[in-house]
């Protein structure tokens, strides 16, 4: 079957489609203006969505892999056809600028992840084949996937959850964050132009609606991205239904610069490793360890990049950094930078928000001469403030990097890649990048260790995590 998507959708059309006139007001975090009004779902809506997804799942699973891949490619086409309208809505609702590694980049990633998942082939694995017999490991769909998402990359993370799930023959019910419900509903509207009925649902609502989804007896797999605290609550609830879990819970990623690094050469990558999406990224660099001998040079090079990265309203084409998405997150960043100041740290740039400004803008902030146990280092800031910690012994830096109870990403920066790899091997994290940070790729497995969660996303490993194994042996 071939289903053609509508022609290009405009922002007004998208908003008209997903808005509910008497719904809850959604605010642009850059201006305080109303973006639109969202439907607010209820636990009953979850029940209806899960029932419909449950009913649709066997037929979806019965289609061939080629057919599902074809539909995912068509879904990517539909996203690309409406990319500008989606990016504009995302920019207004989430706050992120159109340009830089932000709204247009996020919509582009949605299409890329759909296409990558369409292209994967998860063949049965032959685990034994000898005179004693043969055993094959097959992967089958789990059933209904319940996906709960955050507000920082609302479209892209929804795609991370739904693309592999659909590819494997599962049906999906999404619950977006109450901060970014319109973006995810608009994305689902676009995808549902080409997907068969009831394969993909979205129910906007608060934590209670999320709780109804993850506790539903007919949800077989839960994919969650958000805070550790909510992840723990979800895990407790899942004990009752034995739903399978993938938990992506953020972290406090360390970057370690080695003695032989070239500060000028790495400054731009270092900056965006920390400030991508204005720091509101699970696998952004959140603390940077720099050897004494390079400390001043790295600080100076970072200040130069920071002061040339315009921050402001997302729809203004010149901006590459935006506001914090919500007041709660703004307050966290403000509190942690204040803690750094109180601890005697030196503010290299930023650190002094203009309270009279509309929107949750916190200036790009670099903090030097900060103790490793300061709250800005020890707690996840999830915003545009990077502490730069001086070290004298590499072993000490590695010990500091590993000392926290989270482990999502990490990075090592230097000219000698062999040395970087040796240091990388000693870091406790789901991913360690060399001379880059946070560079996710749909082909490369991604997930956390320690309190950053468990379960892998992306690539063939990602497909396995939305499947159940079935061994056939003779
Ligand atoms: P939460 O973990 O509270 O929210 C994430 C999602 O879970 C939202 O959709 C939320 O709904 C939903 N939710 C809340 N309670 C429940 C529940 N009991 N059962 C099921 N779903 C539930 O994160 P916050 O948005 O409050 O952000 C807090 C912190 O989390 C940030 O400061 C940051 O450190 C971290 N974070 C990490 C992210 C990551 O990428 N790993 C992304 C975002 C935040 P709703 O919001 O609608 O109430």
UniProtKB/TrEMBL annotation:
The keyword Oxidoreductase applies. The keyword Oxidoreductase applies. One of its GO terms (molecular function) is oxidoreductase activity, acting on the aldehyde or oxo group of donors, NAD or NADP as acceptor. Keywords: Oxidoreductase. Residues 24-467 form the Aldehyde dehydrogenase domain. Pfam families: Aldedh (PF00171). The active site is at 248. Belongs to the aldehyde dehydrogenase family. This is Acyl-CoA reductase-like NAD-dependent aldehyde dehydrogenase. It comes from Garicola koreensis.
């Amino acid at each position: 079957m071939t289903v053609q998507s509508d022609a290009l959708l405009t922002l007004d059309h998208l908003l008209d489609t997903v808005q509910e006139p008497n719904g809850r007001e959604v605010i642009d975090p850059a201006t305080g203006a109303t973006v639109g009004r969202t439907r607010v779902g209820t636990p009953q809506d979850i029940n209806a969505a899960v029932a419909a997804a449950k009913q649709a799942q066997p037929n979806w699973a019965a289609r061939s892999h080629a057919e599902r891949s074809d539909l995912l490619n068509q879904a990517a086409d539909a996203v690309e056809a409406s990319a500008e309208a989606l990016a504009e809505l995302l920019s207004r609702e989430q706050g992120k600028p159109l340009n830089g590694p932000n709204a247009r980049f996020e919509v582009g990633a949605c299409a890329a992840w759909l296409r990558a998942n369409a292209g994967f082939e998860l063949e049965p694995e032959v685990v034994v084949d000898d005179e004693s017999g043969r055993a094959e490991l097959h992967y089958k769909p789990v059933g209904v996937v319940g996906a709960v998402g955050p507000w920082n990359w609302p479209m892209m993370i929804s795609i991370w959850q739904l693309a592999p799930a659909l590819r494997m023959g599962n049906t999906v019910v999404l619950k977006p964050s109450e901060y970014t419900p319109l973006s995810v509903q608009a994305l689902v509207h676009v995808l549902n132009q080409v997907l068969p009925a009831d394969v993909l649902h979205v129910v906007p609502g608060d934590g209670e609606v999320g709780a109804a989804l993850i506790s539903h007896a007919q949800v077989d797999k839960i994919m969650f991205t958000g805070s550790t605290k909510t992840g723990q609550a979800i895990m407790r609830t899942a004990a009752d239904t034995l739903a399978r879990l993938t938990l992506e819970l953020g972290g406090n990623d360390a970057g370690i610069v080695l003695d032989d690094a070239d500060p000028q050469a790495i400054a731009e990558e270092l900056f965006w490793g920390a400030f991508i999406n204005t720091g509101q990224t699970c696998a952004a660099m959140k603390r940077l360890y720099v050897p004494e001998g390079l400390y001043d040079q790295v600080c100076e090079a970072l200040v130069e990049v920071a002061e040339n990265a315009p921050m402001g309203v997302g729809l203004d084409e010149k901006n590459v950094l935006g506001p914090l998405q919500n007041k709660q997150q703004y307050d966290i960043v403000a509190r942690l930078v204040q803690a750094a100041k109180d601890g005697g740290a030196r503010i290299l740039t930023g650190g002094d928000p203009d309270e009279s400004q509309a929107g949750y803008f916190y200036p790009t902030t670099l903090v030097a001469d900060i103790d490793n146990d300061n709250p800005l280092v020890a707690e996840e800031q999830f915003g545009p403030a990077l502490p730069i910690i001086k070290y004298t012994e590499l072993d000490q830096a590695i010990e500091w990097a590993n000392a926290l109870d989270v482990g999502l990403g990490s990075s090592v920066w230097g000219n000698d890649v062999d040395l970087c790899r040796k240091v990388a091997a000693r870091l406790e994290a789901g991913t360690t990048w060399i001379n880059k940070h946070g560079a996710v790729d749909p082909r490369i497995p991604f997930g956390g260790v320690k309190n950053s969660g468990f379960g892998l996303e992306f690539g063939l490993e990602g497909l396995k995590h939305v499947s159940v194994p079935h061994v056939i042996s003779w």
